[in-house]
Amino acid sequence: MTKSLDLYPTRLPEHHAPVRRRDPVVHSRNQHRWNGPLDEVALSHYERDGFLWFEGFFSQESMQPFFEELKEMAQDPEMLKSEQVISDPASGAIRSVFGMHELSERFSKLTRDPRILGMVRQLLGSEVYIHQSRINDKYGFQGSGFDWHSDFETWHAEDGMPRMRAVSASLMLTDNNEFNGPLMLIPGSHHQFVPCVGETPEANWESSLKAQKVGVPDETVLADLGKRGGIQSPKGPAGSLLLFECNVLHASNGNMSPWPRSNLFFVYNSVDNPLGVPYAAKSERPEYLGARRNVKPLEIHDDFPELAGQGVEPLQGHG
Amino acid sequence: MTKSLDLYPTRLPEHHAPVRRRDPVVHSRNQHRWNGPLDEVALSHYERDGFLWFEGFFSQESMQPFFEELKEMAQDPEMLKSEQVISDPASGAIRSVFGMHELSERFSKLTRDPRILGMVRQLLGSEVYIHQSRINDKYGFQGSGFDWHSDFETWHAEDGMPRMRAVSASLMLTDNNEFNGPLMLIPGSHHQFVPCVGETPEANWESSLKAQKVGVPDETVLADLGKRGGIQSPKGPAGSLLLFECNVLHASNGNMSPWPRSNLFFVYNSVDNPLGVPYAAKSERPEYLGARRNVKPLEIHDDFPELAGQGVEPLQGHG
């Protein structure tokens, strides 16, 4: 495995200005763009802002079984010892669980939900696989926040992800409101790559998943992007869905409310964008943080496989 | 000075359930209640929630001179050395300045603004003085938050304030928005006094103004009050005003935005509620945290004293 050309140098010894993104935001090109399921209004919105918000995408009730399963996991002492479970720096409570889709059939099926997978394939213009899945929990009054960062910056530096061709689907398992630490995003920030200062320490992930020390964008650049694009923080009931581009800057505040906040993240990467040698780290991260073995294209989960193919032929088009 | 009956025991060795408030919320009684300037809608709102929000009370432009004066102070090395200036635990930047109204004529006049002073006298049912004044600054990306607390709990325990007969006026010197750490309040929480666990350490204020360790309400009680009353976070342009009762639970989150947040607080206490021996601390706090000497009733500042008395006689009423 050779290190390919580095389009996005980061973890540098000194400050560098942001560089323009050199990848498309919507990767389905030309007539493929309009094959659905997203329409042009949604696509150009995603290109402009770097995210799409679907309030109440699933029903609130349908989230309950996922939440229950997580609560069971949280009581399993074996689980709590696993390195896939990250505890909160302040309270010691569960902050993140990684690799959800491999621990549970229910979560695995959800990653292959036809509607989510359809949108993700259209945005990435190819078959896709799960680069990483995780759940971020913030208990009432307890969960710490996450500082501003681009996920792609980390995946590029520490996982060797070459191009910006990945998307995160974040599914709300609880209501997200103004006070329980919802995700905040800077619309349009995905058009710039913000190089970060500082060499990646050995086994950085062991501490960075609790509080990030490198891969932190410069405050002046952040302020500039924030003042230009503003900040948005989608809020809604359990079952709401956020799709966000791998390079959009995002953060979240602590949970100051009595209401727990539990969000599920599935990161989809294009099969044409496989991980290589890390661009700015000495060794690869574990499989549950950046998949290298389990990268088979996802197949749509069909609740009624015996009816496959049922439907009406489309009218003859012009394309 | 003898210690008077303690209606609100706190800083106890073990957990105690909340006790019902034993003071009125609006202290002007019977026909005095309707002498204005607040009408019954506002008064009963204040009784129910514990605060009143006036969006754009002053014009944005009129706040500019105050902001400028603060910026000058922040560059004064003498000021920065003063114990009245508290720095941020994370960034070292100015977090709070106490005793604003004694450092500056402009701020002093503002505490005696006819409209503010009129409302405060009506709520407290007497002449009033400034118990404490302060400015809380949160620079972009930097300001830490404040955990949930009742101001009265501290003033009772550490300053010997006997009764709940004080009100804070918080004036926004900058816009307050969802992302720059606005004040959050639990409506209705002022009806309960939440006793806190833990003895007050010697000279507690030297660290408690940065991050509070005692005087922290129990999380179960907080969750109960928060779920019952919800959380509200008034937001608006510079010049907006919040009046909040001394016992309402409030907090604020860190500033995750590029926009600074600067709020001014004037705490008015009734002249009939003077400080005594602290109920749960070994010594008194400094004058700039809890006034004992400078407690003359405030006189309304009049921009046109030569026109005093000008106006129309009210019609003969029934009272």
Automatic annotation (TrEMBL), chains A, B:
This protein is called Ectoine hydroxylase
Asked if Metal-binding is a keyword of the record, the answer is yes
Q: Which Pfam families would you find in this protein's record? A: PhyH
UniProt catalytic activity = L-ectoine + 2-oxoglutarate + O2 = 5-hydroxyectoine + succinate + CO2
Keyword vocabulary terms for this entry: Dioxygenase, Iron, Metal-binding, Oxidoreductase
* Similarity comment: family membership: Belongs to the PhyH family. EctD subfamily.
**Which EC class heads this enzyme's classification?**
oxidoreductase
| The EC number(s) this enzyme carries | 1.14.11.55
Q: Which PANTHER family match?
A: ECTOINE DIOXYGENASE, PHYTANOYL-COA DIOXYGENASE DOMAIN CONTAINING 1
* Record text on subunit structure and interactions: Homodimer.
Gene Ontology MF, one: 2-oxoglutarate-dependent dioxygenase activity
The lineage's top-level taxon is Bacteria
Q: What does this protein do?
A: Involved in the biosynthesis of 5-hydroxyectoine, called compatible solute, which helps organisms to survive extreme osmotic stress by acting as a highly soluble organic osmolyte. Catalyzes the 2-oxoglutarate-dependent selective hydroxylation of L-ectoine to yield (4S,5S)-5-hydroxyectoine.
Q: What cofactors does this protein use? A: Fe(2+)
Q: Which InterPro entries match?
A: EctD, Phytyl_CoA_dOase-like
